[in-house]
Amino acid sequence: MTDASIAEMNDLLARQRAAFLAEPNRSLKARREDLKKIEAITLDNQQAWVEAVSADFGHRNALETRLLELSVVARGIKDMRHKLAGWMKPQRVSTPLMSMPGRSYVRPDPKGVVGIVSPWNYPVQLALLPLATALAAGNRVMLKPSELTPNTSALMSKLLADIFPAEQVSVLEGGPDLAEAFCALPFDHIFYTGSTRVGRSVAAAAGNNLVPVTLELGGKSPALVSPDYSIDDAAHAIAWGRFLNAGQTCVAVDHVMAIGDAERARTIGHAVAQKAETFYPDFADNPDYTTVIAGQHFARLESMVEEARAAGAEILQPAHDPDAVRATRKFPPTVVINPPENLRLMREEIFGPVLPVLSKPSFDAAIDTVNAGDRPLALYVFSDMSSEIEHVLDHTHSGGVTINNAMLHVANDALPFGGNGPSGQGAYHGKFGFDELTHQRAVFRVGRWHTTRLVAPPYGKRAKSITDLALKL
Ligand code: NAD
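Above: the input record for the complex with nicotinamide-adenine-dinucleotide. Below: its predicted structure, written as tokens.
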């Protein structure tokens, strides 16, 4: 990070703040136009986005980029455009008797300049959706995308510069040094998506400036499978929820806890491996299977699996040539059955196509394991019995939950998307995002006369009776 770029970031922030002060409450019409512009660059450049993302990953199927990035952004923006008028309206609230006469309402004010830091795993969606949300809330945005997706970041930077002045939206490309300096800027809000480790330092930097922060982080999202649940249905959903995007999804199924004996875990593990085989036959050359983003992540996954192998765990992998897949970064879809729980596989977020399947004697034993770790970003329960589902929900905490499938709660904009404790704080999607990036300003408008006249000093009998009354109301 050079001084020039720190100076450049400070200058941009000053210019954005000046522009914000000149137009502190962008009109509904202007915000809708902002959103339409982002929708247009998303939908009109599908091939360019697909190619940029695939080049950054090594390979990713066009369908996954169109379905999991472009359509998510476009649908999210449509929802915002339709509902924005209602969200922007001041909300009248009740006024207590003692404060009457008067009117109370909550005014959703823009915050100002929002700093957004995005990760590499869904580099379009996780940058453009927070950006659109911030603009819908009337803010200006400085965006720092991931250094691991330079093609996507360059395309995004160009397309956004074509439709927005730098005083409204600007993209700053750079690595961790720049990101660190970026998060030390006195924004009006920081919206960070990435790992829990970096999230801690972002929170500390924001705290120094008393900047409010949204943290969309990671963690180990478990799937708990009831002893009576259909193996085929569970295996299908779990294989989809683990191997999509080669497991590089924040809400991917990180590991499975099969309720029952060791044999039940084996049966489920083999069924998931079979599904992976059906989804991605000949995975190394399969065009539907995504590559691991970078060599260091490939090596990290290899060493996790080797540690499990050395510990004697059963490992299911399709036949492959290790050197060849290392060269192309297509990591074999891997299932690890009943690994010891002190391994890295069970301590760290895996974030790749490797799935440990453990056996737990009861739901309560699985719940104890969940509660002994960090609160996960997502939790999955596979059961046909409401009593089992409610028991798990009542006794665990997580950012969100999908029952009898994986990841789908994230696809509904009527639900908040966010973590819980170490998996994040704050939430977005739909109205939750609008509220997150809005200052809820309390306004109380009094009439010409107000009860405060009756309780003003010097305190006499009347003030005392009113205070007595206030304590009884
Ligand atoms: P990362 O934390 O390494 O990087 C994310 C961003 O942070 C990048 O833009 C990077 O430049 C920046 N960064 C790096 N060092 C920084 C610093 N010291 N200060 C400020 N910013 C810094 O994460 P990643 O590897 O890109 O993403 C993977 C992680 O993100 C996983 O843990 C995953 O679960 C999580 N994730 C969460 C969500 C969610 O919505 N909750 C979505 C996607 C990914």
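Notes for the reader.
Residues 117-121, 126, 144, 146-147, 175-176, 179-180, 183, 193-195, 198, 201-202, 216-218, 250, 349, 351, 377, 419, 424 surround nicotinamide-adenine-dinucleotide (CB under 6 Å).
The chain is about 45% helix and 15% strand.
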